[in-house]
Amino acid sequence: MLTAGILLFDDQGRIRTTQDAPTDFNGGTPTAHGGLLSSDRDVDPFVYLAGLGYGPQSRLTDTASPLNPIGPFVNDKGQVRVSGDPPAYWYAGLPFTADGMLSVVDDVAPMEFAFSSAFSNAFDSPSAA
Fold it and tell me: Range with the lowest mean pLDDT among 4-18, 52-66, 97-111?
């Protein structure tokens, strides 16, 4: 089961995804970085939960291939069928394309920039010896 309420979306309404390892699970939805859907593209499922396939790193498996649909949005392997197209409709808070595929966008994990880190650390006081 995918839980829409914990996911992050872009300005078009697509689910933001990452290939980073999940740090949280809610109802079977693996997320990282505060709500990016943790997924593996075109990886064969290793285990299944509620008909959805998960890879060996506990990420949801997905595919951009429109072939072999067997359910509302999975293929015959249990991979979620995804597309970068904008959503045409929403069901249970999840965005779907006109072709019935989950609308997603590959995202990047937030990074700490060297300038920000150096600036923040400049205010650390040296320890007294």
Answer: 97-111
15-18 vs 102-106, strand pairing mode: parallel
Contact (Cβ atoms closer than 8 angstroms) between residue 122 and residue 104: no
**What one-character DSSP code corresponds to residue 8?**
-
Residues contacting 82, CB < 8 A, separation 6+: 17, 39, 41, 62, 63, 64, 101, 102, 103, 104
Q: Are strands 47-49 and 80-83 parallel, antiparallel or unpaired?
A: unpaired
* Strand 47-49 with 52-54, pairing: antiparallel
Contact 19, 58 (CB under 8 A): no
pLDDT band at 114 (very low <50, low <70, confident <90, very high): very low
- The answer to whether 33 and 110 are in contact (CB under 8 A) is yes
H/E element holding 58? none
If one compares 114 and 37, the residue with the highest pLDDT of the two is 37
